[in-house]
Amino acid sequence: MYGKAFAPEYQGALTTLSVNSSLTDVLAVGTEQLRAAEQAGRHGEAARSGLAVAEAHRRLGRIGEADRAWKASYRAARAAGDLAAMAWALWSGGTLARQRGSLALARRLLRLAAELAERGGDILARGYSLAGLAETGRIQGDYEAVGRLHEQLLAEARRRGEARHTVWALEGIAQMHRNTGAYDTAYAMFEEAAGIAARADDRRGRAWALRGLADVVSVRDGDTERALALLSEAEVTCRTMKLSSALAYNHKMRGNVLYRAGRYTEARDLYQQALTEFRAMNEPRGEALARLGLAKSLARLGRDRAETAAELAELAGTLELIGLKHTREMVARAQAEFGLRAQDDSRLQAEVVR
């Protein structure tokens, strides 16, 4: 049995905030509490208020502000000698690093966070940090390496009855099944995640689960209208809670659904919108996915073949440098889709066929 979802990153004076609080509200309250704590010289409270400020900035796509906030939170936690607060700050920094495409830094910060959390006796901080490591590996495409960790974290979250973390783990495992073609398993896990999130009033988790369901419904069933309806439902939550990153990924997925349906002009417009959103928040992985979708849509709409080839080759090289294996393979499949030979370059591997 799962209890109501809560946000463990809202700590200290901010524990009254809901997991569904608008990020602009979180930022306003967190900033107010942070200033009060700093003026009073209460380092521990400054660290915990600063964590909420860092996370609000990150989720709003304000990268520079988020970077300064998590580092300030860590310094305050260190001044207070609070290992758990230090761990949470490093978790925030590692999550931000992954969002920015700095995957090696993300792994380093998240490992340190897990170690400090264990020393500080904070089970949730440890779990979230390990989850961050698992997600970093997953988006790189290292499914074999992180699959067992995802399953371990899911089992731990189920034992604790922690809805939000259970939903996250289910969605991560579901995404790996979807990407390897196990659509029925993926659908069942996304559906379970959506149900748990709904009962626990975790609107953010449900929005991500609906996005996953829409993807499977589109690719497995070819049911474009149902997929679009699921995305529209999720978009309402993204806008209400000011979830900038989730909203951009929602728009990118809407582009995917329309592309699969052969509605290339509409897909092009959605990919362009998502690309603008991802660039505004400096999110390289989302930007790469939107660029890929846009390039494919433009090719279908008659773009010059040489321009498409150059775009895909350049994108492949960028992804190789970032280390996003799965997304790189998606580019190779696009090159195969349009009959374009991958560049004979040491950075670019042999094409991956469907």
From TrEMBL:
It comes from Streptomyces plumbiresistens. This is Tetratricopeptide repeat protein. It holds the Pfam family TPR_12. InterPro entries: TPR-like_helical_dom_sf. Signal peptide: none annotated. SUPFAM superfamilies: TPR-like. It comes from the Bacteria.
